[in-house]
Design a protein that fits this description.
Strand content: 5-15%
InterPro entries: Cys/Met-Metab_PyrdxlP-dep_enz, Cys_met_metab_PP, O_succ_thio_ly, PyrdxlP-dep_Trfase, PyrdxlP-dep_Trfase_major, PyrdxlP-dep_Trfase_small
GO biological process, one term: cysteine biosynthetic process via cystathionine
GO cellular component, one term: cytoplasm
Bound molecules: pyridoxal-5'-phosphate
CATH topology of the largest domain: Aspartate Aminotransferase, domain 2
Number of helices: 13
Cofactor: pyridoxal 5'-phosphate
Structural class: alpha/beta
CATH class of the largest domain: Alpha Beta
Protein name: Cystathionine gamma-synthase
Low-confidence stretches: none
Length: 388
Amino acid sequence: MTKSEPNLQPETVAASHGVAKDTAFHAVVPPIYLSSTYAFNGFNNPGSYDYGRSGNPTRNMLGDALAELEGGAGAVVTSSGMSAVDLLLGQLTSSDVIIAPHDCYGGTYRLLKARAGKGHFTVKFLDMGNLAELSNVLDAGASLVLVETPSNPLMRVVDIQAIARLAKKAGALTAVDNTFLSPALQTPLKLGADYVIHSTTKYLNGHSDVVGGAVIAADLEKVEGLRTWATVIGVIGSPMDSWMTLRGLRTLFPRILRQQETAGRLAEWLSQQKSVAVVHYPGLRSHPGHRLASKQQRGFGAMLSFELAGGTKAVEAFLQELKLFTFAESLGGVESLIVHPATMTHVDMTSKEKLVAGISDGLLRISVGLEHPEDLLSDLKRAAAVLS
Ligand SMILES: *Cc1c(COP(=O)(O)O)cnc(C)c1O
Protein backbone atom coordinates (compact mmCIF):
# COMPACT_ATOMS: atom_id res chain seq x y z
CA MET A 1 0.00 0.00 0.00
CA THR A 2 1.20 3.49 -0.78
CA LYS A 3 0.89 6.09 1.95
CA SER A 4 0.37 9.71 1.05
CA GLU A 5 2.04 12.41 3.15
CA PRO A 6 1.54 11.89 6.88
CA ASN A 7 -0.41 14.23 9.15
CA LEU A 8 -2.86 15.47 6.55
CA GLN A 9 -6.34 16.31 7.76
CA PRO A 10 -8.96 13.78 6.58
CA GLU A 11 -10.65 16.44 4.42
CA THR A 12 -7.35 16.83 2.58
CA VAL A 13 -6.94 13.08 2.16
CA ALA A 14 -10.43 12.81 0.64
CA ALA A 15 -9.88 15.73 -1.71
CA SER A 16 -6.31 14.98 -2.77
CA HIS A 17 -5.39 11.30 -2.45
CA GLY A 18 -3.79 10.31 -5.76
CA VAL A 19 -4.11 13.79 -7.27
CA ALA A 20 -1.22 14.85 -9.55
CA LYS A 21 0.62 11.56 -9.04
CA ASP A 22 0.53 10.40 -12.68
CA THR A 23 4.09 9.91 -13.90
CA ALA A 24 3.22 9.12 -17.54
CA PHE A 25 1.49 12.40 -18.55
CA HIS A 26 1.19 14.40 -15.30
CA ALA A 27 -2.59 14.04 -15.37
CA VAL A 28 -3.97 15.83 -12.32
CA VAL A 29 -6.91 13.45 -11.99
CA PRO A 30 -5.73 9.87 -11.44
CA PRO A 31 -6.07 7.83 -14.62
CA ILE A 32 -8.30 4.76 -14.68
CA TYR A 33 -6.62 1.42 -15.38
CA LEU A 34 -9.10 -0.93 -16.99
CA SER A 35 -6.60 -3.60 -18.05
CA SER A 36 -7.37 -7.07 -16.69
CA THR A 37 -3.78 -8.23 -17.07
CA TYR A 38 -0.23 -6.89 -16.79
CA ALA A 39 2.95 -7.84 -18.65
CA PHE A 40 5.67 -9.57 -16.67
CA ASN A 41 9.09 -7.89 -16.58
CA GLY A 42 10.61 -11.17 -17.70
CA PHE A 43 10.76 -14.87 -16.90
CA ASN A 44 9.51 -15.52 -13.37
CA ASN A 45 9.52 -11.77 -12.77
CA PRO A 46 6.10 -10.15 -12.37
CA GLY A 47 5.71 -6.38 -11.97
CA SER A 48 3.74 -4.86 -9.12
CA TYR A 49 0.52 -6.03 -10.78
CA ASP A 50 -0.09 -9.28 -12.64
CA TYR A 51 -3.86 -9.89 -12.88
CA GLY A 52 -6.89 -7.70 -12.20
CA ARG A 53 -8.57 -9.99 -9.69
CA SER A 54 -5.60 -9.83 -7.32
CA GLY A 55 -4.85 -6.16 -7.81
CA ASN A 56 -5.70 -3.07 -9.84
CA PRO A 57 -4.08 0.37 -9.48
CA THR A 58 -7.39 2.26 -9.58
CA ARG A 59 -9.06 -0.03 -7.04
CA ASN A 60 -5.99 0.08 -4.80
CA MET A 61 -5.95 3.87 -4.92
CA LEU A 62 -9.50 3.97 -3.58
CA GLY A 63 -8.65 1.32 -0.96
CA ASP A 64 -5.64 3.30 0.24
CA ALA A 65 -7.71 6.48 0.53
CA LEU A 66 -10.39 4.67 2.55
CA ALA A 67 -7.79 3.01 4.79
CA GLU A 68 -6.23 6.37 5.50
CA LEU A 69 -9.57 8.01 6.26
CA GLU A 70 -10.52 5.21 8.67
CA GLY A 71 -7.04 5.02 10.22
CA GLY A 72 -6.51 1.42 9.11
CA ALA A 73 -3.50 -0.49 7.77
CA GLY A 74 -5.21 -1.21 4.46
CA ALA A 75 -8.50 -1.90 2.74
CA VAL A 76 -10.07 -4.29 0.28
CA VAL A 77 -12.56 -2.76 -2.14
CA THR A 78 -15.40 -5.11 -3.03
CA SER A 79 -18.28 -5.27 -5.51
CA SER A 80 -20.97 -4.32 -2.97
CA GLY A 81 -21.55 -3.68 0.71
CA MET A 82 -22.91 -7.20 1.04
CA SER A 83 -19.80 -8.74 -0.50
CA ALA A 84 -17.74 -6.66 1.94
CA VAL A 85 -19.65 -8.24 4.84
CA ASP A 86 -19.28 -11.66 3.23
CA LEU A 87 -15.56 -11.17 2.68
CA LEU A 88 -15.17 -10.65 6.41
CA LEU A 89 -17.40 -13.64 7.20
CA GLY A 90 -15.12 -15.70 4.97
CA GLN A 91 -12.40 -15.33 7.60
CA LEU A 92 -14.44 -17.53 9.97
CA THR A 93 -14.72 -21.29 10.31
CA SER A 94 -17.61 -23.56 11.26
CA SER A 95 -16.63 -23.56 14.95
CA ASP A 96 -16.77 -19.75 15.16
CA VAL A 97 -19.56 -17.79 16.82
CA ILE A 98 -20.62 -14.34 15.57
CA ILE A 99 -22.56 -11.93 17.70
CA ALA A 100 -24.63 -9.54 15.58
CA PRO A 101 -27.13 -6.77 16.37
CA HIS A 102 -30.76 -7.92 16.36
CA ASP A 103 -31.58 -4.75 14.40
CA CYS A 104 -28.77 -4.93 11.82
CA TYR A 105 -29.15 -4.04 8.13
CA GLY A 106 -31.70 -6.38 6.52
CA GLY A 107 -29.26 -7.74 3.93
CA THR A 108 -26.69 -8.47 6.63
CA TYR A 109 -29.34 -10.25 8.73
CA ARG A 110 -30.32 -12.39 5.73
CA LEU A 111 -26.69 -13.20 4.89
CA LEU A 112 -25.80 -14.15 8.47
CA LYS A 113 -28.87 -16.40 8.75
CA ALA A 114 -28.19 -18.02 5.37
CA ARG A 115 -24.53 -18.77 6.04
CA ALA A 116 -25.24 -19.97 9.58
CA GLY A 117 -27.95 -22.20 8.08
CA LYS A 118 -25.34 -23.78 5.82
CA GLY A 119 -23.14 -24.47 8.84
CA HIS A 120 -20.46 -21.91 7.99
CA PHE A 121 -20.57 -20.51 11.55
CA THR A 122 -22.98 -19.90 14.41
CA VAL A 123 -24.73 -16.55 14.76
CA LYS A 124 -26.32 -15.03 17.84
CA PHE A 125 -28.43 -11.89 17.47
CA LEU A 126 -28.75 -9.56 20.41
CA ASP A 127 -29.37 -6.01 21.54
CA MET A 128 -25.90 -4.45 21.59
CA GLY A 129 -27.19 -1.68 23.80
CA ASN A 130 -27.37 -4.26 26.59
CA LEU A 131 -23.70 -4.61 27.56
CA ALA A 132 -24.42 -7.02 30.42
CA GLU A 133 -26.12 -9.43 28.04
CA LEU A 134 -23.32 -9.01 25.51
CA SER A 135 -20.81 -9.80 28.20
CA ASN A 136 -22.69 -12.99 29.12
CA VAL A 137 -22.89 -14.13 25.52
CA LEU A 138 -19.19 -13.34 25.01
CA ASP A 139 -18.33 -15.46 28.05
CA ALA A 140 -19.89 -18.45 26.32
CA GLY A 141 -17.31 -17.94 23.52
CA ALA A 142 -17.35 -15.84 20.35
CA SER A 143 -14.94 -14.92 17.57
CA LEU A 144 -16.50 -11.81 16.08
CA VAL A 145 -18.82 -9.06 17.24
CA LEU A 146 -20.58 -7.15 14.50
CA VAL A 147 -21.70 -3.61 15.31
CA GLU A 148 -23.91 -1.11 13.48
CA THR A 149 -24.30 2.34 14.90
CA PRO A 150 -26.45 4.33 14.40
CA SER A 151 -28.82 1.50 13.55
CA ASN A 152 -31.21 1.30 10.64
CA PRO A 153 -33.91 2.67 10.72
CA LEU A 154 -34.30 3.73 14.37
CA MET A 155 -30.89 5.40 14.69
CA ARG A 156 -30.09 3.62 17.95
CA VAL A 157 -26.56 4.36 19.10
CA VAL A 158 -24.33 1.78 20.80
CA ASP A 159 -20.97 2.25 22.51
CA ILE A 160 -18.24 1.06 20.14
CA GLN A 161 -15.44 1.52 22.65
CA ALA A 162 -17.23 -0.43 25.40
CA ILE A 163 -18.22 -3.23 23.01
CA ALA A 164 -14.72 -3.51 21.52
CA ARG A 165 -13.23 -3.63 25.03
CA LEU A 166 -15.57 -6.42 26.14
CA ALA A 167 -14.96 -8.34 22.92
CA LYS A 168 -11.21 -8.05 23.24
CA LYS A 169 -11.30 -9.28 26.82
CA ALA A 170 -13.20 -12.34 25.62
CA GLY A 171 -10.78 -12.93 22.73
CA ALA A 172 -13.22 -11.79 20.03
CA LEU A 173 -12.67 -9.28 17.23
CA THR A 174 -14.96 -6.33 16.58
CA ALA A 175 -16.21 -5.18 13.17
CA VAL A 176 -18.24 -2.00 12.73
CA ASP A 177 -20.44 -1.26 9.73
CA ASN A 178 -19.73 2.48 9.37
CA THR A 179 -21.98 3.05 6.35
CA PHE A 180 -24.45 5.42 8.06
CA LEU A 181 -21.85 7.96 9.18
CA SER A 182 -18.73 7.44 7.04
CA PRO A 183 -15.24 8.23 8.36
CA ALA A 184 -16.12 11.91 8.14
CA LEU A 185 -18.26 11.52 11.28
CA GLN A 186 -17.06 8.33 12.98
CA THR A 187 -13.81 6.33 13.01
CA PRO A 188 -14.42 3.00 14.79
CA LEU A 189 -10.82 1.72 14.50
CA LYS A 190 -9.77 4.60 16.74
CA LEU A 191 -12.33 3.39 19.28
CA GLY A 192 -10.82 -0.10 19.39
CA ALA A 193 -12.56 -1.94 16.55
CA ASP A 194 -10.52 -4.34 14.40
CA TYR A 195 -12.47 -3.97 11.15
CA VAL A 196 -14.66 -1.37 9.48
CA ILE A 197 -17.15 -2.33 6.78
CA HIS A 198 -18.69 0.03 4.24
CA SER A 199 -21.34 -0.01 1.64
CA THR A 200 -19.54 2.58 -0.52
CA THR A 201 -22.84 2.73 -2.45
CA LYS A 202 -23.98 5.23 0.17
CA TYR A 203 -22.08 8.28 1.49
CA LEU A 204 -18.61 7.42 0.21
CA ASN A 205 -19.61 7.44 -3.45
CA GLY A 206 -22.52 9.68 -2.58
CA HIS A 207 -24.15 10.03 -6.00
CA SER A 208 -26.32 6.89 -6.19
CA ASP A 209 -24.58 5.64 -9.32
CA VAL A 210 -22.29 2.88 -8.00
CA VAL A 211 -22.89 -0.26 -5.93
CA GLY A 212 -19.72 -1.08 -4.01
CA GLY A 213 -18.19 -1.95 -0.66
CA ALA A 214 -15.00 -2.07 1.35
CA VAL A 215 -13.46 -3.69 4.41
CA ILE A 216 -10.73 -1.85 6.27
CA ALA A 217 -8.60 -3.57 8.91
CA ALA A 218 -6.62 -2.03 11.75
CA ASP A 219 -3.57 -4.25 11.30
CA LEU A 220 -1.67 -5.39 8.26
CA GLU A 221 -1.94 -9.11 8.94
CA LYS A 222 -5.73 -8.87 8.81
CA VAL A 223 -5.56 -6.78 5.64
CA GLU A 224 -3.45 -9.51 4.02
CA GLY A 225 -5.97 -12.13 5.14
CA LEU A 226 -8.81 -10.18 3.52
CA ARG A 227 -6.82 -9.46 0.37
CA THR A 228 -5.93 -13.11 -0.13
CA TRP A 229 -9.53 -14.23 0.41
CA ALA A 230 -10.88 -11.52 -1.93
CA THR A 231 -8.56 -12.84 -4.63
CA VAL A 232 -9.61 -16.43 -3.91
CA ILE A 233 -13.34 -15.76 -4.18
CA GLY A 234 -13.15 -12.78 -6.57
CA VAL A 235 -15.47 -10.31 -4.84
CA ILE A 236 -13.52 -7.33 -6.11
CA GLY A 237 -14.73 -3.86 -7.07
CA SER A 238 -14.39 -2.91 -10.74
CA PRO A 239 -11.89 -0.22 -11.87
CA MET A 240 -14.68 1.99 -13.22
CA ASP A 241 -16.70 1.78 -9.99
CA SER A 242 -13.55 2.42 -7.97
CA TRP A 243 -12.69 5.47 -10.04
CA MET A 244 -16.19 6.89 -9.70
CA THR A 245 -16.22 6.21 -5.96
CA LEU A 246 -12.88 7.99 -5.59
CA ARG A 247 -14.38 10.95 -7.44
CA GLY A 248 -17.41 10.90 -5.13
CA LEU A 249 -15.13 10.66 -2.09
CA ARG A 250 -13.53 14.01 -2.98
CA THR A 251 -16.61 15.85 -1.72
CA LEU A 252 -17.52 13.51 1.17
CA PHE A 253 -16.89 16.07 3.89
CA PRO A 254 -18.73 19.09 2.45
CA ARG A 255 -21.61 16.82 1.39
CA ILE A 256 -22.23 15.08 4.69
CA LEU A 257 -21.64 18.20 6.79
CA ARG A 258 -24.22 20.14 4.80
CA GLN A 259 -26.61 17.18 4.75
CA GLN A 260 -26.46 16.70 8.51
CA GLU A 261 -27.08 20.41 9.08
CA THR A 262 -30.26 20.14 7.03
CA ALA A 263 -31.18 16.87 8.78
CA GLY A 264 -30.97 18.62 12.14
CA ARG A 265 -33.42 21.29 10.96
CA LEU A 266 -35.86 18.77 9.54
CA ALA A 267 -35.69 16.68 12.71
CA GLU A 268 -36.47 19.74 14.86
CA TRP A 269 -39.42 20.66 12.70
CA LEU A 270 -40.79 17.12 12.56
CA SER A 271 -40.54 16.77 16.33
CA GLN A 272 -42.94 19.72 16.73
CA GLN A 273 -45.70 18.25 14.56
CA LYS A 274 -48.86 16.78 16.07
CA SER A 275 -49.10 14.27 13.24
CA VAL A 276 -45.63 12.90 14.12
CA ALA A 277 -45.58 10.52 17.08
CA VAL A 278 -41.80 10.33 17.46
CA VAL A 279 -38.63 11.41 15.64
CA HIS A 280 -35.50 9.25 15.75
CA TYR A 281 -32.46 11.48 15.26
CA PRO A 282 -29.42 11.33 17.57
CA GLY A 283 -29.02 15.09 17.28
CA LEU A 284 -32.26 15.65 19.23
CA ARG A 285 -31.78 15.95 22.99
CA SER A 286 -34.77 13.69 23.46
CA HIS A 287 -33.02 10.85 21.58
CA PRO A 288 -31.85 8.12 24.00
CA GLY A 289 -28.48 7.94 22.22
CA HIS A 290 -27.86 11.70 22.15
CA ARG A 291 -25.10 11.80 24.78
CA LEU A 292 -23.28 8.76 23.49
CA ALA A 293 -23.50 10.05 19.92
CA SER A 294 -22.11 13.42 21.03
CA LYS A 295 -19.14 11.59 22.51
CA GLN A 296 -18.36 8.96 19.90
CA GLN A 297 -19.40 10.74 16.68
CA ARG A 298 -18.16 13.97 15.16
CA GLY A 299 -21.69 14.80 14.04
CA PHE A 300 -25.18 13.33 14.14
CA GLY A 301 -25.37 12.39 10.48
CA ALA A 302 -27.99 12.95 7.81
CA MET A 303 -30.25 9.94 8.39
CA LEU A 304 -33.40 10.15 10.45
CA SER A 305 -36.68 8.37 10.86
CA PHE A 306 -40.06 9.36 12.24
CA GLU A 307 -43.36 7.74 13.00
CA LEU A 308 -46.60 9.17 11.67
CA ALA A 309 -49.31 8.89 14.30
CA GLY A 310 -51.85 7.86 11.68
CA GLY A 311 -50.13 4.59 10.68
CA THR A 312 -50.32 3.15 7.16
CA LYS A 313 -53.13 5.47 6.02
CA ALA A 314 -51.17 8.56 7.02
CA VAL A 315 -48.04 7.18 5.36
CA GLU A 316 -49.85 6.73 2.05
CA ALA A 317 -51.36 10.22 2.13
CA PHE A 318 -48.06 11.78 3.19
CA LEU A 319 -45.99 10.07 0.49
CA GLN A 320 -48.54 11.08 -2.13
CA GLU A 321 -47.87 14.77 -1.44
CA LEU A 322 -44.06 14.69 -1.47
CA LYS A 323 -42.38 16.12 -4.55
CA LEU A 324 -38.72 16.56 -3.60
CA PHE A 325 -38.19 13.42 -1.53
CA THR A 326 -38.02 10.45 -3.84
CA PHE A 327 -39.74 7.30 -2.60
CA ALA A 328 -36.83 4.89 -3.06
CA GLU A 329 -34.49 2.61 -1.11
CA SER A 330 -30.84 3.40 -0.38
CA LEU A 331 -29.27 6.47 1.20
CA GLY A 332 -26.28 8.76 1.28
CA GLY A 333 -26.75 10.37 -2.14
CA VAL A 334 -27.07 14.04 -3.05
CA GLU A 335 -30.83 13.59 -3.53
CA SER A 336 -33.22 13.20 -0.61
CA LEU A 337 -34.86 9.79 -0.37
CA ILE A 338 -37.67 8.42 1.75
CA VAL A 339 -38.48 4.79 2.52
CA HIS A 340 -41.20 2.94 4.35
CA PRO A 341 -39.14 0.30 6.21
CA ALA A 342 -42.08 -2.00 7.03
CA THR A 343 -42.85 -2.63 3.34
CA MET A 344 -39.44 -1.96 1.80
CA THR A 345 -36.07 -2.40 3.59
CA HIS A 346 -37.50 -4.63 6.32
CA VAL A 347 -40.22 -6.43 4.36
CA ASP A 348 -38.59 -9.85 5.01
CA MET A 349 -39.23 -9.55 8.75
CA THR A 350 -42.30 -11.18 10.27
CA SER A 351 -44.84 -8.88 11.98
CA LYS A 352 -43.57 -10.08 15.34
CA GLU A 353 -39.92 -9.40 14.43
CA LYS A 354 -40.90 -5.91 13.26
CA LEU A 355 -42.75 -5.28 16.51
CA VAL A 356 -39.72 -6.36 18.56
CA ALA A 357 -37.41 -4.23 16.40
CA GLY A 358 -39.73 -1.21 16.77
CA ILE A 359 -40.55 -0.95 13.07
CA SER A 360 -44.17 0.20 13.02
CA ASP A 361 -46.42 0.72 10.00
CA GLY A 362 -46.23 4.49 10.49
CA LEU A 363 -42.44 4.63 10.37
CA LEU A 364 -40.67 6.51 7.56
CA ARG A 365 -36.90 6.90 7.13
CA ILE A 366 -35.30 9.75 5.24
CA SER A 367 -31.85 10.25 3.80
CA VAL A 368 -31.31 13.99 3.60
CA GLY A 369 -29.72 15.23 0.41
CA LEU A 370 -28.15 18.48 -0.74
CA GLU A 371 -31.29 20.36 -1.75
CA HIS A 372 -31.89 23.70 -0.05
CA PRO A 373 -33.21 23.08 3.47
CA GLU A 374 -36.13 25.47 2.94
CA ASP A 375 -37.29 23.54 -0.11
CA LEU A 376 -37.13 20.24 1.77
CA LEU A 377 -38.96 21.76 4.70
CA SER A 378 -41.69 23.10 2.39
CA ASP A 379 -42.08 19.65 0.90
CA LEU A 380 -42.54 18.08 4.35
CA LYS A 381 -44.91 20.89 5.38
CA ARG A 382 -47.11 20.41 2.34
CA ALA A 383 -47.26 16.67 2.93
CA ALA A 384 -47.92 17.01 6.65
CA ALA A 385 -50.75 19.48 5.96
CA VAL A 386 -52.93 16.69 4.57
CA LEU A 387 -52.69 14.81 7.85
CA SER A 388 -54.25 17.41 10.12
C1 LIG B 1 -26.71 -0.63 2.01
C2 LIG B 1 -26.09 -1.22 3.22
C3 LIG B 1 -25.39 -2.43 3.18
C4 LIG B 1 -25.31 -3.25 1.91
O1 LIG B 1 -24.61 -2.60 0.92
P1 LIG B 1 -24.85 -2.84 -0.68
O2 LIG B 1 -23.86 -1.90 -1.26
O3 LIG B 1 -26.27 -2.49 -0.95
O4 LIG B 1 -24.55 -4.26 -0.95
C5 LIG B 1 -24.81 -2.90 4.34
N1 LIG B 1 -24.89 -2.21 5.50
C6 LIG B 1 -25.56 -1.04 5.59
C7 LIG B 1 -25.64 -0.34 6.90
C8 LIG B 1 -26.18 -0.50 4.46
O5 LIG B 1 -26.85 0.64 4.56
